[in-house]
Design a protein that fits this description.
Helices cover 80% and strands 0% of the residues. It has 23 helices and no strands. The longest helix has 43 residues, at 293-335. It is globular, with a radius of gyration of 23 Å. The mean pLDDT is 84.
Length: 515
């Protein structure tokens, strides 16, 4: 256990360290003027974040992934399709409620949601959870009835852009970037391992020649549900879209007398979110699954790690990373717009290089392609692409144009490529959109964009032009992985053609005949 924990802490250190070093370096330059208190708070928060992500990832391996696998295989073996669908809907809802990235996002936009205070935050979280639950059911039905993923993606993205048109008519067009961001943050470190394990459990139990291919695609579909759900919810927003509460980025307030209450609040939030998941799982355990005692002990230990890691992660984000990210974005935008874009590009490259899930994805693609796409090739391509996506987002903010100018061509290219590459590439590509937009995107890159927008255009334009950065990062792998897949397929065909030409052009005298 200690060896596994050390490994996870090492991964999270690699994840957080590059961003931390860059921030500490620029804090000693004229570009950014951080108070000593802020610098110390950021450094302490970085250590907490390393510990929190490490504990959380270990907990996900010990609890969330096995829970998903057991639920998928156990309910499929029971051959009760309606029970499987009902359970998957509820688990999709509950797992999303426990997602830390979503909690970070919801806390930043709760002022414009229906209701007041914490109620507003929970309305957004539950709405997103319902979107995930519905589309998880659709994904499960895709596996059971072996439907084509590309056709489903094409249909639902066309539906999504139709809802965009409705949103424009309603006058809530400012919340379009937020809607797309919600799809990126939903598929985070709790949701991804659980849902992927659920898909593997169901597809391996059902079997068939395409069982490996069928196990992918669940995350792809589950990313669409929250976008549509938040678009619908945005039509009922009650707060003003022309103001934005930036007091949540006040580091002095977090470090003052509010630190204790903040810690207690996060303990309560995480206990409630994880408690719902655990309670429902144990109901399934006593009614359907009936796992051995040893497995339950392992899952129990994993849940404890997950709980502790989540609390530390959320406190560290709110105390150090969000406020410092906001202030850096604000101050760099004051100095130079061009420098802001360059800084965003560099941060994008570093963030995706540091994301542990990206390294898992790279290995997965290399294995699936039989070495056709190398790990290093994939890592470089993703790093550059995510850097470009954040740079493009900041350019959009500077010149003030709609995010649809990026998203519509991007998704059309992604969906178009799906007809030219093997289906396994499409499934992996759309699944991995949530992998690239990890915890650092919502907790540091997004506040940085909000700070920059505050300087450039004021608080009234934050919803229109600061949000959307998570959506852009999530869209990057859809194109990158499929292009690499297309390249691997074409290279294979070219090699086969060259080999055939050599065989046909060979001198007959060089052929050895055996008698």
């Amino acid at each position: 256990m200690f060896k596994a924990l050390f490994s996870k802490l090492k991964e999270s250190l690699i994840s957080v360290l590059p961003v931390t070093v860059i921030v500490l370096i620029i804090s000693f330059t004229p570009l950014v003027d951080l108070e000593p208190t802020e610098t110390i708070a950021f450094a302490v928060s970085a250590v907490m974040l390393i510990l929190g992500i490490g504990l959380f990832n270990l907990g996900a391996d010990l609890a969330m992934t096995p829970m998903g696998g057991h639920v998928g295989s156990g309910l499929t073996k029971s051959k009760k399709v309606m029970v499987l669908i009902a359970v998957c809907f509820v688990m999709g809802l509950l797992i999303t409620i426990a997602e830390p990235d979503l909690s970070v996002l919801a806390n930043q936009v709760k002022d414009i949601m229906p209701g007041e205070g914490e109620v507003s935050k929970w309305i957004l979280i539950i709405t997103v959870g319902l979107g995930v639950g519905i589309f998880l059911v659709i994904a499960i039905l895709k596996i059971i009835f072996r439907k084509d993923l590309s056709a489903l993606l094409m249909f639902f993205y066309m539906m999504l852009f139709a809802v965009c048109a409705m949103l424009a008519e309603s006058g809530k067009f400012k919340l379009l970037p937020l809607s797309f961001d919600s799809g990126g943050v939903t598929t985070g470190p709790i949701t991804v391992p659980f849902i992927m394990a659920l898909g593997v459990g169901i597809s391996s139990t059902i079997g068939g020649k395409n069982s490996t291919e069928n196990s992918f695609g669940l995350i792809a579909l589950c990313s669409i549900g929250p976008i549509i759900a938040v678009m619908m919810l945005s039509m009922t927003t009650s707060g003003s879209l022309d103001t934005y509460d930036t007091s949540i980025y006040d580091i002095a307030e977090s470090l003052g007398g509010n630190f204790g209450p903040l810690l207690l609040k996060k303990l309560g939030d995480v206990a409630l979110a994880l408690g719902l998941v655990v309670a429902f799982f144990f109901i399934l355990q006593f009614t359907v699954l009936k796992l051995p005692k040893q497995k339950l002990i392992q899952i129990g230990i994993g849940i404890a790690y997950t709980f502790l890691g989540l609390v530390i992660f959320l406190v560290a984000v709110e105390v150090g990373f969000m406020p410092v990210g906001f202030k850096i974005g604000k101050q760099i935008a004051e100095k130079s717009e061009a420098l802001l874009v360059v800084f965003g590009f560099v941060l994008g490259m570093v963030v995706v290089l540091a994301e542990p899930a990206v390294h898992v994805l790279n290995k997965q693609v290399e294995d699936v392609t039989g070495g056709g796409v190398k790990k290093i090739e994939m890592l470089i391509a993703l790093s550059v692409a995510v850097g470009i996506s954040i740079g493009l987002t900041l350019i959009r903010m500077i010149f003030k144009f709609s995010i649809l100018y990026y998203l519509i061509p991007g998704y059309l290219i992604s969906l178009g490529l799906s007809f030219f590459v093997p289906k396994i590439y499409t499934a992996i590509a759309f699944d991995s959109g949530g992998v690239a937009s990890g915890p650092l995107t919502s907790s540091f890159i997004l506040p940085l964009a909000i700070g920059a927008c505050t300087t450039l255009w004021g608080e009234g334009e934050i919803y229109s032009f600061a949000y959307g950065v998570v959506a852009m990062v999530a869209m990057t792998p859809l194109i990158t992985i499929q292009i690499l897949g297309f390249k691997a397929v074409m290279s294979s065909k070219v090699r086969a053609k060259i080999t055939m030409k050599r065989i046909l052009a060979a001198d007959d005298e060089q052929i050895i005949y055996f008698k």
